[in-house]
Amino acid sequence: MSIQDIIEGKKEWRAHMARVKALPQDYQIVYKEIQKYLFKVGPVELTEGTGLLSGIVDLFEEGAALGKNVLEVTGSDVAAFCDDLIKDSKTYADIYQESVDRKVSKAMKKVTNRKEGYRDGKSN
User: Fold this and answer.
1) pLDDT for 44-65, tens place per residue?
2) Among 4, 44, 50, 58, which has the minimal tally of Cβ within 10 Å of its Cβ?
3) 16, 54 in Cβ contact below 8 A?
4) Which residues contact 122 (CB under 8 A, 6 or more apart)?
């Protein structure tokens, strides 16, 4: 990543956050909680710009323009709203799970191969 990419990323983030700050207070509160939730749950594409978060701001701007309460837009279960947004996205938890599965599988193969070697009269 070049310095220019970093600068552009910071400009994009600042513009994004300016849009968030322009939202009504209740929308800002819910947005910040959604942001925290998504950063913890970790859909991988969050590291690739503000696409998902900008989409949420778009939705919130539209809801605010229509005079809706933020929970009319997200529903009362904001975590379920977030989960629904990322249901088809790969998360860091998914990547970690796959890594653990690979390591366990590799370790089990080693143990199995050793046991089979002893059964065949070979020592490894």
Assistant:
1) 665 555 678 899 999 999 999 9
2) 4
3) yes
4) none
